[in-house]
Amino acid sequence: MLFDLTMPIFLFLLCFIAIKVYEKIEGKLKRILEEKEFQVKDVIVLVIAMGVMISIMVIVPSLALALLILFAFSMLIFTFLLMVTEKWYLSLIPSAIFVLLYYFGVFWNIPYLWNVYIIDIFAVVFAILITVYLGSLFTWKTTAVFAVLLTAVDIIQVLLTGHMGEVASKAVQSELPLLVFLPIFPPVYNAEQGLAMMGLGLGDLFFAGLLSLQAFKQLGKDSALLSMIGISASFFVFETLLLNYKIEFFPGTLMIVCGWLPLVVIKQLRGASR
After folding, report:
1. What average pLDDT does range 104-121 have in this prediction?
2. Separation in Å, CA 25 to CA 37, 38, 133, 134
3. Strands (E), 39-196
């Protein structure tokens, strides 16, 4: 039987790092964002926008998609660092490095400037930045609504329309940091592709980080730890099924939310018993 320890452990560590980063800059984020919070209507609009964007990315030419991602992610780096450092020239340098590495690595085909390891690093950085920034705007209620709606949209886009798989394939071809690919452990080799890898989308990384961060904000460190363990354990079980039944695409949000739900149920039961 095939199974993988790499991705579940990686998910746990990513959520842990996102929470630690949030702890460091929580006060500054609240001052900058003026303690604003998403309302349910904002979450509904956000999920609809995400679903529509996935469908648009399917029909957008690869070059246009690359330019769009480069612009969006470089602006994300710049904006986040500007909030933290309050110095525009320091915030501009990492954004420029990201764009230049992609340009020379992909268009000039210089592999040591842009390869799967560098792509993974940037994807992780973007996932953490998005988690910390947007996570500060969510409440426990809007997180629950977001989890339900996003999981539903993900199921539709992966299993019904197939758009998520098409976007993932296009991202791989264009070498965009929209997915993280890690070798499964224990390692598995095949004659055609070599070392077997498991991929997980940027949206799924953000989703796992968001759920864990909200558990930390609303319930404390112990609950956040339980959330991260639950998410990792759930992902391990689902991933084992995918590996053994050779399922190529499956909704990552469903794998993640199933590990988070027990924490929500326990919270509701405790609240009802008081």
Report:
1. 93
2. 17, 19, 10, 13
3. 179-183, 189-190, 194-195
Which tokens go with 269? 């039961």
Q: For all residues of the chain together, what is the average pLDDT?
A: 92
The residues with which 181 forms a beta bridge, in sequence order, are 199
Q: What's the CA gap between 35 and 136, in Å, rounded?
A: 8
Top pLDDT among 270 and 120 is at 120
- DSSP states of 157-208: IIIIS-HHHHHHHHHHHTT-TTEEEEE-SS--EETTTEE-EEEEEHHHHHHH
- Token pair of 129, please? 């930045």
151 C-beta neighbours (distance < 10 Å), count: 20
Burial degree of 14 (CB within 10 A; 0-12, 13-18, 19+): buried
Q: How far apart are CA 195 and CA 128, in angstroms?
A: 27
